[in-house]
Design a protein that fits this description.
The chain is 18% helix and 42% strand. The model has no long low-confidence stretch (mean pLDDT 94). The radius of gyration is 25 Å and the shape is elongated. It folds into three domains: 113 residues, DNA Polymerase III, subunit A, domain 2 (DNA Polymerase III, Chain A, domain 2, Roll); 117 residues, DNA Polymerase III, Chain A, domain 2, CATH 3.10.150; 111 residues, Roll (DNA Polymerase III, Chain A, domain 2), CATH 3.10.150.10. A hairpin with a 2-residue loop joins strand 8 and strand 9. The chain has 365 residues and is of the alpha+beta class.
């Protein structure tokens, strides 16, 4: 096996497939990168739950397949001195030879025949996403997924396709995001996709302008384009009936600058070291929003110009939950809808009505 390629392109491919490689697997071969050289150079990472393949442009001199330590191979390629790198096998010594400029590495191969095959899905029924559309769907939903040891359903994004409308929904108990758009495809489905796979898809979308397709089975989902595939198990649990959480009425409607509102909350967060003990307080008053933050190490009061309809309200929030929502909004102007001081705040765009964010309040003492 032998190929030559651009070092930076190879690093890009390694970085992508390494996200599916565990450093503490009970199977040693799963700590390796599978390198397959045929008509194309293809890299594969796999942890039996998540599988990724990525094709790298290369000059192919000899076909073959090898398995090498992901960490060792990746660390070497990132430190090579020249922009071009040649990788070839030395069958007599069971070694992989890596050459770049005047640097030459010999590293051991792992047993490629023990590597579990990644079984990708049949690509018959697919939904094709425009690159920018899918980026927006993921970016404006995934931030609301739960982290760490949360329930499984809170660590995924619910993808709901009904007619020509597709919704990406996520919640963590403190905030919820619903991002939606229209599509030409009439295929209908409900998928609960782990946030981990969508994070990886988003990273690929950000380095390529190519559109992305999705296909699925009862237990798996796959995203792919011409040089990238990622497959993952679906979360099997039934998702929460999220529509029942969204208030159907409002008593206070506020229109405010996204940038000004975000900046003010970020300033209040500087002194809010404990949001549970010291929540940020929002008060509406005539044509202003008043933000108050008070903690042991200081306090802040800031007034923002706003258009307000309805009765005045005073309500507490965790600053992080609001910041997470506001940072992914591209609209210059947003609307805030309130019901009571114990009800959630709905955040929408004034121009683009294609998302709904819900932020739960904190009870004030």
């Amino acid at each position: 096996m032998k190929f030559t390629c651009n070092r930076d392109n190879l690093i890009e491919g390694i970085n992508i497939v390494q996200r599916a490689i565990s450093t503490k697997s009970t199977m040693a071969v799963l700590e390796g990168i599978l390198i397959e050289v045929g008509e194309e150079l293809k890299l594969t990472g796999n942890d039996n739950d998540l599988g990724i393949t990525y094709e790298v442009p290369a000059i192919i001199e000899e076909i073959g397949s090898i398995l090498v330590s992901s960490k060792t191979f990746g660390d070497i390629i990132r430190k090579l001195p020249d922009i071009y790198v040649t990788v070839e096998t030395s069958e007599k010594e069971n070694l992989v030879v890596i050459t770049s400029g005047k640097a030459k590495f010999d590293i051991a191969m792992m047993p490629v025949d023990e590597y579990p095959q990644v079984n990708f899905l049949n690509e018959k029924e697919v939904v094709i996403f425009d690159n920018n559309v899918l980026k927006g769907l993921i970016k404006q939903s995934i931030f609301a997924t739960a982290q760490d040891d949360a329930k499984a359903i809170l660590k995924g994004v619910f993808v709901e396709k009904q007619g020509k409308t597709i919704n990406f929904v996520a919640l963590d108990g403190n905030k919820m995001a619903v991002k939606f758009t229209n599509m030409e495809n009439d295929l209908e489905f409900n998928l609960l996709i782990p946030s981990r796979i969508l994070n990886e898809v988003l990273k690929v979308l950000q380095i390529s302008d190519e559109n992305m397709s999705i296909c699925y089975s009862e237990s798996q989902v796959m995203f792919f384009n011409s040089h990238f595939k990622i497959i993952s198990r679906l979360i099997k649990n039934e998702f929460i009936k999220y529509r029942e959480i969204i208030p159907r009425e409002e008593k206070v409607h506020v229109v405010v600058s996204t940038k000004d509102f975000l900046s003010a909350i970020e300033r209040s967060a500087i002194i809010m070291t404990d949001n549970k003990k010291y929540p940020m307080i929002i008060t509406t008053d005539m044509d202003e929003i008043i933000i108050n933050a008070k903690a042991e190490n200081g306090s802040l009061e800031e007034r923002l110009a706003a258009s307000i309809n309805g009765e005045n309200i005073t309500i507490g929030f965790n600053t992080k939950n609001f910041i997470d929502c506001l940072r992914v909004i591209e609209d210059e102007i947003i609307s805030l809808s309130f019901t009571t001081n114990l009800g959630p705040c709905l955040v929408r765009g004034e121009e683009n009505n294609d998302f709904i964010f819900l932020v739960m309040p904190v009870r004030l003492k």
